[in-house]
Amino acid sequence: MKAWVTECQEGREGDRLFLLSHSPVVTFGPRTSPADLPSAASGLPTVPVDRGGQATYHGPGQLVGYLVAHVRERGPADVVRWLERGIIAALGALGFPAVRRETERGGPSLVGVWTPDHRKVASIGMRIRGGVSSHGFCVNVAPDMAVFDSFVSCGLSDPVTSLAVLAAERDRAAPGDGEVREALAAALGAHR
After folding, report:
1. Where do the BPL/LPL catalytic domain residues begin and end (predicted)?
2. Confidence label for 180 from pLDDT (cuts 50, 70 and 90)
C-alpha cells in the first residue's frame, strides 16, 4: 500500500480500491489507549499503524478495503463520508439497512457504519498524505465474533455485529464475500 501511495503522489499510478482479507490482527492508531488492546493471552497480534481511528480487528470473514486515491480536492471528512455512504448503499442493496451514527449531544457523527439499532458493522480509519488517501475500511461479513470480546473496538462500547449475525436474526442466508465485494465496488463507484 505504501508503494502505491508514493506512486500516486508522484502521478505514476491512478486511484485504486483494494478489497481483501487478512490473517487475524488488531491494528491500532496512535490515539488508542493501551487498555483497549487485547492482552497477550488472547493470542491476537497487534500492529501500530499510521491511520486515524483506534483499535480495529482484521481477519477471516471480514472484507477490508484499502483506498489509495487522489483526494486533494476533498477534505478527510469528505472522504470518510463518501466511504460511509457507499458502504451504507452496498449493505442496503444486500438487504441490510445501515446508517451513520449521530452522537447523543448533536456533536459530529461517529465514524463508521451501524445497524439502525446501534450495532457497528463497518469501521473506517484513513490517512491522507500528499493529497493521497490510504488505509480504508472493514466490513464484518462473517468473522468469529468472539474476537471482539478481547479488545475495545474503535474505542467505543457499542456492540459489534456482522452480516452473518444479522442474516441469522432474519432467518435468511448470509451473503458471501464475493457478493459483498461486488456490492461495495458498485456502490463506492456510484457514490463517489
Report:
1. 11-192
2. very high
